[in-house]
Input
Amino acid sequence: MSDTVASKSSYLIHADASRCAGCMTCMLRCSFRLDKMFNLAASRIQIKRLLGHTNEFEIIFTDECDNCGICVRYCPYGALTAQKVRKEA
Amino acid sequence: MELPGYAGYILHIDLTSRNVKKEPLDTEIARTYIGGAGIINKLACDLIPPNAGPLSPENAIIIGTGPFNGTMIPGSSEVMIVYKSPLNGSLPHSNGGGCFSLFLKSSGYDHVVITGRSYKPVYLIIGDEDVQLCDASDLWGMDVFDTTDELRRRHQPCSVIPIGQAGENLVNISVTQIDKGGTVGSGGLCAVMGSKNLKAVVARQGTKGIAVADPKRLQKLVDEILSRVTSYHMRDEMLKGGAMTMTAGWVPQGQLARCSSQLVPYPSEVAEMQAEMYEIHKRSRQKIACPTCPMSDKDRLDVPERDVATYDTAIFAEMAIMTLSSTFGHRASGSALDRYAEALRYSDMVNRYGIDKVYSFQGLVDFVVTLYEDGIITREDTGGIELDREFDTLLKLVEMTVFREGFGDILADGIIGAARRIGKGADKYVQNVVKGQFILFDPRLWRLGPMQFESMVYPGRSLNVGGAMGAATYSPGWPMKDLLKQAERCGVPQEAIGRIFTENSFNVGRLAKHGEDFFNLFNMFGQCHRLYISRFYSIEILTELYSAVTGVESTPSDLKMASERVWNLWKVMNYRAGFNRKDDQPPRIWFQPLKGPDKEYHLTDYFGNACLTREDVEGLLDDYYEERGWNRETSLPTAKKLKELGLEVLTSEKDY
Output
């Protein structure tokens, strides 16, 4: 899976799954922001490994994602980027 | 009371009765042994009977995580496993990456203890409260990668510790990969799983969270580490080349062959070929990272022009260029691309079947080929097969070993067992072997640094823990001021500095003890100790992280003592399994000159200034035992040392 876009509030988050190495740092960091604990199930970004002999991932944002951008700041591989968008009045 | 940083439970599985028991983790044990290598030692000491046969139902497989696993501390993905080894009867530690530790803790468990023997092939699946033994009849016969793919298809998202055909056939040199990337189990873990009819252990991604004592403090520490990681000057290149980037400069003077008695030279164009191969590797590579790892050293490799696609954890250029190994002496030929593809084909084969190419198989092949070349064994012994150093022979021997076919049945027992079964004086050809495994870095080429020294004394295996003193051990001859900085980073106490260091040198036996204590902490926390991630940690940083995660305020010396406690317990366990000073001996070959194409190489000190004799190394062993507080004659920890570490209970047994 290649590009996934989540756009809701202050950031437009662009995900390039071809750069994802599967480290799940984004998931751990997201849940840590929300609950001050590390919980993969609570993360609003989910990294799913695609089946088969290859090493590819799908990046999914849940409906609860508020586009805070913290996953972007912590992705070590540049798979996530954010673009600031102007909020409508 | 629950301790932050821990999931809180130990899972006990009896494969014979199919009984599953969930036991709360004793917080006092967690404080005393911390986790990972520490708690699995404690469990093994309590649960594996000293006389248990490695392939008997009484042997246990104990899988453990530490308090850093499941958090976002960079590089915190290692899982630790202990069991009684069928290769040599020791209790070795194995650690491996992948998602297993993260997913196990997300289901609420810190440790898993597997005992007994299933009456039919099964796999264990753990997902929150749902813990099941599932029928694995249809998986039996599958290789490591295909088993992983199939179990992912059934249980995604999950992490898989499978066995290949080598484990099923009780091959003593079997090994596996967690999630097709984290090598684990050198010493025959998979044969133990095979003996239990256990095809795989699967941890599903669970729904539990891991709390930490001081989130703000932890966040600050992690941010500081990540800031140093991202500004590390080698990182950008390493993300392109993985482990090969860091090992590109390692090509030593040639490759060992003929039972470590000869150095086969590289071709004259080695530098150009190495550069070309590195470029091929980079364009073939897709990076794989274990959870929380910002360095992604593992590889998915595709070479479409040679129809090769596989996974590996460390393809080193010098292996692929000419020999595929540090000990086999096979001369590859053709272009850089041909050689690279050949190396990957071999690697794919052994990784899929699940045999240990690094510490066992390649040395074994060199051993039997040398015996054949010298007329000790003939076609009659090999079942009609001519043994040579050709690639096809290597592949044939892989097949025969994995399936224990004919002569391969002998190789499957490992080097000590093979020499015994061959007889005819073959044991004289067993060289560069400690505790039944081959030494990875011959100190005649690499000098006797802390890593090489530790290969002798490491309990249960010929391994070293994280290079014992970090990067300084991979490239000998560091300046003294840098070594002293390294010692400070590893927490060598001031009172020991005067004993270890002189103005221009150091005592490698005494220093090795402190390197072990430092890097063993990584194994207790669940932290990766590969040098390109462990380099960002010092004893102070580990101490701060431990306090932030668990709330147990500690000092560096507290942690060093905890590590020493764990190491001493482990030493006693292996002593009771029959391992003492005689097993820590330097191999005979170290004291014979290594014949290279243009010169001879001798065992020297770390700086290359002085040749070392057997008496010198025996003296360094004395110093090591003294630094550890162990009996020089037997290598057993003294009663005084055990009391100091709170392990006096061990002194009530017959050895004291």
About this structure: The longest strand of chain A covers residues 11-16. Residues 25-35 of chain A form the longest helix (11 residues).
